[in-house]
Amino acid sequence: MTLLIRNGEIVTVGSRARGDIFVENEAITRIGRNLEAPAGTEVIDATGKLVFPGFIDPHVHIYLPFMATFAKDTHETASIAALIGGTTTYIEMCCPNRNDDALAGYQLWKAKAEGYSACDYAFHMAVTKFGDETEAQLRQIVADGTASFKIFLAYKNFFGVDDGEMYQTLELAKRLGVIVTAHCEDAELVARLQQKLLAEGKTGPEWHEPSRPESVEAEGTGRFATFLENTGAAGYVVHLSCEKALQAALAAKSRGVRIHVESVLPHFLLDKTFAERPGVDGMKHVMSPPLRAKQNQAVLWNGVATGAIDTVGTDHCPFDTAQKLLGKDSFVNIPNGIPGIEDRVNLLYTFGVKRGRLDLDRFVDAASTRAAKLFGLFPRKGTIAVGSDADLVVYDPEYRGVISAKSQHVNNDYNAFEGLQIEGRPSVVTVRGKVQVRDGKFIGERGRGRFLKREPSHF
Ligand SMILES: [Zn+2]
Question: What does the pLDDT look like over 56-73, one tens digit per residue?
Answer without folding.
Answer: 999 999 999 888 899 999
